[in-house]
Design a protein that fits this description.
The protein has helices spanning 35-38, 44-56, 72-83, 108-122, 140-144, 149-158, 172-179, 201-209, 224-227, 242-257, 262-271, 287-296, 302-308, and strands at 12-13, 20-21, 24-27, 61-63, 92-97, 127-133, 162-169, 186-190, 213-217, 234-235, 238-239, 278-282. The relative contact order is 0.15. The strands form three sheets. Strands 3-4-5-6-7-8-9-12 form an eight-stranded parallel barrel, surrounded by six helices. The protein has a two-stranded antiparallel ribbon with strand order 1-2. Strands 10-11 form a two-stranded antiparallel sheet. The longest helix has 16 residues, at 242-257. Helix content is 38%, strand content 16%. It contains 13 helices and twelve strands. With 320 residues, the chain is α/β, with parallel strands linked by helices.
Length: 320
């Protein structure tokens, strides 16, 4: 079930941006090869082929970042865009400005350098949606300082380098502080609104109340809710607390009883929430597009939702 019961291929407004996106968004991190996060390598050929498949398919929303594999995700997407003669009509591409991976610099100048590098790698003159990525690596005060990253991002929008700007990060209290500034049009929260972790509940509601579009990342918690506990006991790319592993095991048992794949339930938990405009799923090979669409359309009985939705882990082990 998709938001409001509509088709996952139908587009819906992304907050007040004027952009229209599908309920599924393809995450570009894995297609650039991030073995430290996902446990496997992705060749350039496979990454470009995956990006081409996304551009040709029913999902119209692709998300990447300057910092994914030192820009390799953007390079591969840029190659696919060149093959297709640019962005297809109606397609929405988002990327993110990042701090300098070597020095940690996240100044206003670094934001400009990051954005310029992204456009060069993607082969574009402007980006539809540009996020401030992981501002938790600096203080809120530095983020909002005169000449700092938020001011630079706003200027990039004023100059037309970015059509719209967003915020993508983790800690819910910090994200809430940034949203209250009124600077951002879209929020990405990740690993904090899943079957087992509900940290972002109030943040999501507050964003919607402000007219901010909400995109939910990592509905599989980085892998456990996709692969199952027999294959992974990591959550958010680190070993999960025992309470999370045990709750996921209980969910696996319930899903098996109803012949529903655990990843279908994990994905649709996010997609069925009417507050969430789009849900990001990282994809690293072309055939995963169709596999993800199959999970998104899996028929899940309401009885199963009544069993698994209350099985969230205790709040003291959430990401927050």
């Amino acid at each position: 079930m998709s938001p409001a019961g509509g088709s996952p291929f139908a587009t819906r407004p992304l907050g007040g941006t004027g952009l229209a996106v599908t309920a599924l968004c393809v995450g570009g991190g894995p297609l650039g090869s991030m073995p430290q996060n996902f446990g496997y390598e992705v060749s350039a050929e496979r990454g470009v082929a995956t990006a081409r498949r996304v551009l040709d398919g029913p999902i119209n929303f692709l998300d990447t970042a300057a910092g994914y594999s030192d820009g390799e995700s953007e390079r591969r997407i840029g190659a696919a865009l060149a093959d297709r003669g640019g962005l297809p009509d109606g397609f929405v591409l988002a990327t993110k400005v990042d701090r300098d991976a070597d020095t940690g610099d996240f100044s206003g100048d670094q934001v400009r350098r990051s954005a310029a590098g992204s456009l060069a790698r993607l082969g574009l003159e402007t980006i539809q949606l540009l996020y401030l990525h992981d501002p938790e690596h600096i203080s809120y005060e530095d983020g909002m300082a005169a000449g700092g990253p938020v001011e630079a991002l706003l200027r990039l929008r004023d100059e037309g380098v970015a059509q719209h700007i967003g915020l993508a990060g983790g800690p819910v209290e910090l994200m809430s502080r940034y949203l209250k500034t009124g600077a951002f049009e879209v929020l990405i929260t990740h690993n904090r609104w899943t079957l087992v972790d509900r940290s972002a509940d109030d943040l999501i509601s507050a964003a919607v109340d402000r007219g901010i579009g909400v995109v939910n990342g990592a509905p599989f918690g980085g892998g456990m809710l996709a692969k199952g506990t027999a294959h992974s006991t990591d959550y958010a790319y680190r070993p999960a607390p025992p309470a999370i592993v045990e709750r996921v095991r209980q969910m696996e048992t319930a899903c098996a009883r109803y012949s529903v794949p655990l990843p279908a339930a994990a994905l649709q938990f996010s997609m069925r929430d009417p507050r969430i405009t789009s849900t990001i799923v990282g994809i690293s090979r072309p055939e995963r597009v169709d596999e993800t669409l199959r999970l998104a359309g899996w028929d899940i009985p309401e009885e199963l939702w009544r069993i698994i939705e209350p099985l969230a882990a205790p709040p003291d082990v959430w990401q927050w």
